[in-house]
Prior knowledge:
This protein is 43% helix and 20% strand. With 152 residues, the chain is an alpha+beta fold.
Amino acid sequence: xxxxxxxxxxxxxxxxxxxxxxxxxxxxxxxxxxxxxxxxxxxxxxxxxxxxxxxxxxxxxxxxxxxxxxxxxxxxxxxxxxxxxxxxxxxxxxxxxxxxxxxxxxxxxxxxxxxxxxxxxxxxxxxxxxxxxxxxxxxxxxxxxxxxxxxx
Length: 152
């Protein structure tokens, strides 16, 4: 009886090792991570940036407003057309961290997200191309914001 248990335990052990080896062979070097690169001071000062763009138009507009409020010009340029970037730059970003979403509406393939500045009372409408943003695939599409309007 002891021999049978030992034989089965040995067979299970061999099967487990062979299974793990098989996973390693099947996966190949993709599982092996390269050695991390040395971090220099300039690398530590740069925050990682995502190339992901939301496929939901409301979230897309929110991300543009957040990037603008944070003064992240590179991210704003990724979300907006050059005309919108120019309009935002001309407006300036005083109190840009105080925009609150108040609603939204859609017309002719554009979804408009409306915001109000809690400090100045000013309003802003951000127009996002529904087709362009929703058809951007898994990672979304850049330059989906094609209009911005400010009001009082």
